[in-house]
Write a structure and sequence with these properties.
By secondary structure, the protein is mainly alpha-helical. The protein is built from 6 helices and no strands.
Length: 141
């Protein structure tokens, strides 16, 4: 879904949409701990809005709580892993934005696909760390 939204955004984004994408990317780049998840989600939702595809945008919005719930579950004990992960994810956001600005639908789709694939590779170690932390907490209770 997000690959298609990025592709459509490259085709359909207005100058105002692109300005909003730049703004949300900047806010994500300068987010403080506790703001990362919301700012990252804002960027993805801005792409959906720029695609001007109401059905796909509504679908992304409907499942966005899953993104928020999973990434927001990370805590201070995992911040070093999380910080490295967030930096790499920021690079992915920049690649997507550049392709949308260039009006390159295939490039935008490829950049989003790479971003999401990286997320799939990166997230399991973070998730495993979180499970270990929770297990230790339960055993200490």
């Amino acid at each position: 879904m997000e690959v298609r939204l990025a592709e459509r955004a490259a085709e359909r984004a207005t100058p105002e949409d692109i300005a909003r994408l730049r703004q949300t990317a900047q806010k994500r780049a300068h987010a403080q701990p506790g703001q990362y998840v919301k700012r990252g989600l804002d960027f993805h939702l801005a792409i959906a809005a720029a695609a001007h595809h109401t059905v796909l945008a509504a679908m992304l919005n409907a499942v966005s709580h899953l993104y928020f719930d999973v990434l927001d579950s990370l805590d201070r004990e995992g911040q070093h892993i999380e910080a490295e992960f967030r930096a790499r994810q920021h690079d992915g956001h920049n690649d997507i934005l550049r392709m949308i600005e260039a009006r390159d639908p295939r490039g935008a789709a490829d950049a989003m696909r790479a971003h999401l694939e990286e997320l799939q590779v990166e997230f399991p170690p973070i998730s495993r760390h979180r499970r270990r932390v929770n297990k230790r907490r339960r055993s200490n209770d």
